[in-house]
Amino acid sequence: MICQNLIEELEEAYTLITVVEEELVENAKKLNLSLAEVHMLQAIGKNKEMGSTISELAAERYITLSSVTIAVNKLVRKGYVLKSKAQQDGRVVYVRLTEQGQRVDRLYRRFHQSLAHNMVEGFSEEEKKVLLKGIGRLNGFLKHRIEKMEAMK
Known about the structure:
Helix content: over 70%
Strand order of the largest sheet: 1-3-2
Distance between the termini: 37 Å
Shape: globular
């Protein structure tokens, strides 16, 4: 019964995430951004000091180097991202958020912080650890599926 309840909760969570993301897309359109571009800004925003390389972004987003390059170039044209070449190796390109990109990143990070805070509100430390472990297992399962799909290509 617990497993069936978990399946139902996961299905509902996926549906609700889709609805929320659709709303985020509508908000992002006002900023001239797609949801994929917002996700790319969030990935770039994780490494504020150094910036992220194209390779790092491709690995994090599970997409090709050429897809990242296209997305980054589009974000540069829109004014959300800056690119710079590494001093030691000119082939390496670092990507950082502009002030405009940082504002978008902060907006969506606040949403994620609110979500996380709401999920654990009232939980004991042990319950928080169990939740974190469960989400870690979910992520591990999904990463393994992605690896299998990549291997089949």
